[in-house]
Amino acid sequence: MNIIEVKDIEKIYRVGDHQIRALRGVSFHMEREQMVAVMGSSGSGKSTLMYILGCLDRPTSGTYFLEGTDVSSLSDDQLAEIRNRKIGFVFQTFNLLPRTTALENVELPLIYGGIRNSRKRAIEALERVGLIDRMHHLPSELSGGEGQRVAIARALVVNPVIILADEPTGNLDTKTGSEIMGLFKELNSQGVTVLIVTHEAHIAQECQRIIHLRDGQIVGEKT
Questions:
Q1: Distances from the Cα of 129 to the Cαs of 62, 74, 104, 125, in angstroms?
Q2: pLDDT mean for each 10 residues of the chain (223 residues)
Q3: Domain limits for position 177
Q4: pTM of the full predicted structure?
């Protein structure tokens, strides 16, 4: 079964009397344990697509199936449940709480979800990303690469069906960005499904498939 099936997704934003068509009939699917890049320049619609895939926004029309469930028709509470249980997010700016240790940052999604053994699972997630020796450090005491590893551990800790990464190397130097992509590939080899949104060709080429977006439409795909 496909993990993601998107069909004829449209997204229209209304600004005053004007309509902005951010997505124009996007259709694609993604299999379990794949590592896929969605690539496009600024304004191509790739971030809008990621917000819809992450259940942070709804399409204006079209359908989006996640593990066979049509999430485009769910209530806000149901979407929140899916975000908390099935989707791990990694952002360009890491989004770590500054006065909270790496361990506590990773543990937060489990605490919010009322999940038991949260501390043990958070430690295991940090171990998976090679950061166990930095778990009691604050974000300000971590390098950029370490901060992103914490963010990846936080995404992993809920055992999501998919990780969505929005420009995950955008704030990193080339060497550190390469190390982070190496980590994503290692996790993917362990069975983690990953979708990466990027405008950088060398990042996209690390993935098994590349979906090209332009002006809200898929204009090509490469495997």
A1: 37, 33, 15, 7
A2: 93 90 96 95 92 94 94 89 91 91 95 86 95 96 95 94 93 92 94 94 94 96 88
A3: 32-60+73-222
A4: 0.92
